[in-house]
Amino acid sequence: MISSQFPELLLSLTLQCTFVLAVTLVLALQAPTSDIADRIWSRGHLYVLLLCLAAILLPHVRLIQTDGMMAVMSQIAHSARFSAIVAVLFRVWLVGVTMLVFTTLWSLCRTTLMVRNAVKFSMQPARSGFTLGSEETRRILKSLNIKVLWSEQGSVPFCWQLHSPVIVLPEVLSSFPADELDAVLRHELAHLQSQHPLKLFLQRLVEIGFWFHPLVWATSREASLQRELASDRLANQSPSQVAVFLKGMVRLSDFCRGRTSELAAGMGFGGHGRSMIQRRVDQLLSLDGSPRQTPQNHRVVSAVLMMAAILASTVWVPLNAQATGRTLFSPWPGLSASILHELGISVRDYEVDTHRLLEHEHDAE
Questions:
Q1: Beta strand spans in 41-104 (E)
Q2: Boundaries of every domain in the chain
Q3: Is 105 exposed, middle or buried (0-12, 13-18, 19+ CB in 10 A)?
């Protein structure tokens, strides 16, 4: 597996991922609004993961594999030096994946523990006449069955959605003015309404599989920023709401300055430096309170991204030493082939040799 299929699989998927993310970046940068860009990024990450599943479970098309190319590639793949390099690369890739999986699981455990502690030790701030959010915000939270929790451990607000959606607020927010607290609640509520926890999970899977790819990390930062911008846009529908949210964001950023967060999700103010806060402020100041409208060409953009993913699936580097290239499609991978065989469906899970396809003539004695 390591000497024959891994280099072909990893290199081909890297090229496919690069193409899809590059197209996604171009489309997202041209999107008229942050919520449209947010949806484009989520589709881009989803298509990268689907390409990975297709590469592992389905046969791929061989469009550029000629007999001469296959002969050269087979000679390279059979060399001892190539096998040694591949073995080292596989171990390096596996170490990187293992470290990221561990880091992600550690972050998830910390976040889950904080949520549980917030539920166990939740408390309402002791302040006369205090109300948690506006009447409209409380109505939405109740209709969506979203719990709001207070945490003594947290430094930033965040939303969480494993079993049931929750919003966890740091205790410092209990001293915020009621309208600024409501603005923070609306922002986290917008994250949940836009399914950002799921989108972040898809992004993390792409980062784990392609941890070595600079474009993956660059686009992840942009996708994370667009999620914040989209939530800001959804949560603030009037100039008065924008003004209150800006005051609350400045107050909260002062509190978060110098603090680091190891949570799986949160209202971050770092990672992008001042550019992140500046872009959020610029967008909020540009909002005019007019109703949000989806551009008519949104479906066209989605179709372009889907076609890019389909086109990327045909990019396959012939580095498998066992491949003959004598058929348009490669064999079915062993995992999916065995499952189909168990279901009584016959599929080809072997390379086709020329002599198997030709009719043999035997001379009569």
A1: none
A2: 6-312
A3: exposed
Whose tokens are 């660059």? That residue is 218
Give kind and range of the element (H or E) at residue 340. Answer: helix 334-342
Tokens for 305, please give them.
């991204």
- Whole-angstrom CA distances from 249 to 180, 187, 196, 317 are 8, 11, 20, 49
Residue 205, Cβ neighbours under 10 Å: how many? 15
State how far the alpha carbon of 113 is from the alpha carbons of 107, 153, 170, 266, in Å.
10, 10, 14, 15
Q: Which DSSP letter does residue 169 get?
A: E
Q: Which of 220, 169, 218, 158 is nearest to 192 (CA)?
A: 158
Residue 299 CA, chain-centre distance (Å), reads 21
pTM summary value = 0.85
Eight-class DSSP state of 116: H
pLDDT tens track for 76-131? 666 777 778 888 889 999 999 999 999 999 988 888 888 888 865 444 444 445 56
In whole angstroms, what is the distance from residue 267 CA to residue 161 CA? 15
